[in-house]
Sequence to fold (251 residues):
Amino acid sequence: MIRFETFYICCPNCGSYLEGKRLKSEMVNQSILYSDGKTLNDNYITEPQKMVICPACNHWFWIDDFVEPLVSGQKPDVFYTWNNWRFYGVKFGSNDGKVALIKHYKDFLTKVKLDEEKELYFRRLLWWAYNDFVRDKYQISLKYLFSGKMSFGVWIKNRRKIISGIRFFKSVHAEYVENLRRLNELLDGRYIPSDERYEAANLERIEILREMGSFNEAAVMLAVIPRRTHYIANIAKRVKKKDFWPFLVTG
Ligand SMILES: [Zn+2]
Fold:
């Protein structure tokens, strides 16, 4: 059973090939959705990595569309595997790896010539990277331990990591809020009601406002949302409680 489609990216600077993989949507067993929009299919993030740092020559390049000539399905003789360049080689298992990822996104925001599309992309991923420290906060509860999803030993280790992650998250909270403020500004007025993305962008803005602690503004926007899904009701409940943490929607 082949679960991934494999493609190869050719570095525009040195011509090295980098292997990339895309999970086949029909093969996905489990989909996890968080309130900030980050979605994991079988633990793989669904958002494509558009910014690449070549592991051979360190050249930074942006991929708008994964199409030829930059990207092809033809397997070259020699190539760097996905793990060599995916998320800039950062290891997600540790908090140090997560800190390194934040640094990459901040670098891109200051060192890449940005149009609004790129800025939006980097700021959204930066938001998710900060939230990665706290998005699984629910797992530190005893209730989670008793659900039997982790052994006691694993739970203790995981709990320690999350608690230290929460500490880090709080220490960078001012820059976290500043990123959200700019993200909200970029999305505000970006779409008109007839745009396909209009409703999704409004929901994203409500969640941004909630997570940055602007509960009144979030409530004003919520009041005019026509649809009431389980997700929206959940956000509304948290806005009322002045709860700013990201949360697990399904998974
Ligand atoms: Zn290169």
